Amino acid sequence: MRSETFARRDRRRPHVPGEPELWMLILGDLTVFAVFFGIWAWQRAAQPALFAAGRDTLDTTLGLTNTLILITSSMAVACGLDHLRTGEPQRAARAYLAAAALGAGFVAVKTVEYHQHLAAGQTPATGDFFMYYFVFTGIHLLHVLAGLAGLVLLSRRCRSREPSRVLFEGVGVYWHMVDVIWIVLFYLVYLA
Fold it and tell me: pTM of the predicted model, to two decimals?
């Protein structure tokens, strides 16, 4: 990975953020989730009553809360990168910590939601709806946890003498991907 810094980048020359390997990971993840979304749609079409009954057990307010949390967190990540570009590392560090705190809020809300389902006896073994619900949202949750580790790393790296533009842009792109995947999951699982 190149360690190009913000100071060395020519701002007049546009570029694609991150490295080609990052984009292979992002496109791979998006492909896997596209398959998940297709499976969900296929199964929902095959078992409409089961999926409607399962959807009725979901707390849309918690799902919407998590959607707003991730959108706000993505905005904080964008602000952090902007602060680095304008030479304000302290503000950038605070923005990345805010993004991480919001991401931790997502994890807390999802934990409450899982607990509610498990307490009601709704487990992955309950039926197809809950199996897919727990697997797909659980895999997304793992992505959130990986992104949180990246955001904490960025908040610490803001104070380094020459922060790596590639690292900051790469983690930012990954976090935005996590956000976009959740928005689609929220629509398919909670609303459709």
Answer: 0.88
